[in-house]
Amino acid sequence: MPKSGARLKDVAELTGFSVNTVSLALRDSPRIPDETRDRIKSAAEQLNYLPNQVAKSLVSRETRAIGLILTDMQNPILTNVAQSVERKLAARGYTTLFATSNNNQEEEVRMIDTFRARRADGMLIFPFRHGDLDHIRRLRNHNYPVVLLVGEQGAGIDAVSMDERAGASKATGHLLATGHRRIALIDGGSSLGNPEKMDGYRAAHRAAGVAVCDELLINPTGHSVETGYWAMDLLVKSGHDFTAVFATNDSLALGIIRYCKKHAIRVPEDLSVVGFDNTEFGAFAETALTTVSYDVERITSLAVDRVLDLIAHKTGLPDPRIIQLEPDLLVRESSARAASAKELP
Questions:
Q1: Looking at the structure, do residues 133 and 77 belong to the same domain, yes or no?
Q2: d(C-alpha 153, C-alpha 128), whole Å
Q3: Which CATH number belongs to the domain containing residue 272 in this structure?
Q4: Of 14, 106, 233, 275, which is most buried by a Cβ count within 10 Å?
């Protein structure tokens, strides 16, 4: 008998049972006695029998596979999201089909089409542009189960995400509350059409009655540590005064701290730095990073639960549900009270 390619018929011939009995036993049907089921499963293992998943999916109209599309795997938080989603889906008996859009909407559309062609039962998507969702909305309008990993009320699509506006407002508010009045923002998202963190930054300034210094707003072309380093270089060479920097992810913030280390700028004595995401790298940096938490486990649990719930609706999807979790601010060593705070109003 070959080591692979065994069929139900081969298992039936080896055990002396009918193909129907073998099929029922391998699906753990209660109609088959335990002793018979154990004997059939032992024979199937001996023959290295694997079920025909394509045939099963044609019968059940389910592949038990979920597509996961993220934007950029250089961001450690999205790597954590991918790992967490895969674990949670595997625990529920599902396979994860994985892809990245590489911050390109055409690629995002192509991967959505690819997963549809592979008959994925549903998708989890971190969209490239958070407000440009017509191509995803069409899936939802045709009763296809899809859940966004970033989204807002009114999008018309199910979403589970962190409230990025609230998180950015907390980060900026912390710096304002500790006496900083000229706070730089290094934000790789707003130029891509994702303004949430910029909005939170501005909202915190309004709440504190402090004007935003537009010359301190930097839009880098990327989200990496290296991008943060050179964004800080650009900021310093601009000649504008600032006492704090809010970076919209931890990788950017770590690049800023590296620049400061190399150029004898003390953190936090000379400059306070705050990140976003609460990655392991930030927590264990030489100067532990003050940051906004991103609850990967909570978000992925809720998102997986929701997409599987949508899949279970066979006759039409329920109304979209948007869940936004409010993040916590984690104050560590990289931020401190502004040296000139006593002189400020």
A1: yes
A2: 18
A3: 3.40.50.2300
A4: 275
